[in-house]
Amino acid sequence: MDIKSTELLRTSCSWDGVELPLYPEGKPELKVCRMVFPAGAKTGWHHHTVINYGIIQQGSLTIVCVDGTERTFCQGEAMAEVVGTVHRGENRGNSPVVLDMFYVSSPGTEVTVQHPELN
Q: What is the topology classification, in CATH, of domain 29-110?
């Protein structure tokens, strides 16, 4: 059997076109999270301190930046998330969204900073 490889994403910029920061120095720490957004769910406003990227496994997720910039990602689509930009994820659909996110950092780094003052 032949194994098929399909490149889903290759970029040095986040989805909004901003160049990604340099990798941290030292020992790497990789983190993978599966997030499930019920219909109508929104994350709180937050920003990421490190490079992260993901794949929408199910549904459609809209990423909204605090300045109003937004983009919707659909099932099977890969995205390079914004770093240092305050944003939130919104499931505007009627069924759950499943998102797998991959974070690249150094041990002990807080990868997500919440902004409850904006909620």
A: Jelly Rolls (2.60.120)
